[in-house]
Amino acid sequence: MKVYGITGWKNAGKTGLMERLVAEITGRGFTVSTLKHAHHQFDVDQPGKDSFRHRDAGAHQVLLASSKRWALMTELREEEEPPLSDLLAKLAPVDLVLIEGWKRDRHPKVEAWRAETKNPLIAPGDDTIKAVASDTDIETDRQKFNLNDTSSIADFILAEVGL
After folding, report:
1. What pLDDT, on the 0 to 100 scale, is given for residue 36?
2. Cβ distance 34 to 27 under 8 Å?
3. C-alpha distances in angstroms, 71 versus 31, 64, 89?
4. What confidence category does residue 73 fall into, taking pLDDT thresholds of 50, 70 and 90?
5. Which of 50, 70, 80, 157 is most buried (most C-beta within 10 Å)?
6. Mean pLDDT value of segment 64-90
7. In a 3-state reduction of DSSP, which class is residue 159?
8. pLDDT digits (tens, 9 = 90+) for 128-155
9. Of the given ranges (10-19, 36-45, 72-81, 107-116), which has the lowest mean pLDDT?
10. Is residue 50 part of a domain?
11. Among residues of the chain, what percentage have pLDDT more than 90?
């Protein structure tokens, strides 16, 4: 599987860019999966639901299935967060996996950057960032894109991974 990341600080436009890229690239006939890193606790389940009750009772994994989708939830309990490579290995094969977050991992990335956040660019200190997508003209030695030019960013990523 080909892997490419979208990274940046909070409120930089990562999720919107990911959403547009998935639509653009799948619209071109490629299969795409995504991984999203969360720095905080999250729960896709709801208290009171049977699957929540199973996990709450101590189940290590709970697989929830219907005619529309299935989801496998794994409780880490006191285990370390698994590395990105382990998570990628759990995905079904697709043409491209887009990764949101995982700033410090070594896969190639596009940095999303918005002027209003006033955060520094990550790119100058990170050779895994191959391009910057911004809402303003910025100084960088990387390929530059308008943050909303989804088609050109998709072209760049697909060329980078050989699709």
Report:
1. 92
2. no
3. 19, 5, 16
4. confident
5. 157
6. 91
7. helix
8. 999 999 999 999 999 999 999 999 999 9
9. 36-45
10. no
11. 74
The answer to whether residue 118 sits within a structural domain is yes
Which structural domain, as residue segments, surrounds residue 126? 2-40+81-161
Domain CATH for 17: 3.40.50.300
Residue 4: C-alpha distances to residues 13, 66, 81, 159 (Å): 16, 30, 21, 11
* E strands, 2-84, in order: 2-7, 32-36, 61-65, 70-74
Cα dihedral 105, 132, 10, 93, rounded to 10, equals -50
Token reading at 94: 């697709």
- CA dist 126 and 108 (Å) reads 10
Residue 152 lies in a domain: yes
Instruction: Give the separation between CA 160 and CA 150, rounded to whole angstroms.
Output: 15
Encoded amino acid at 16, one letter: G
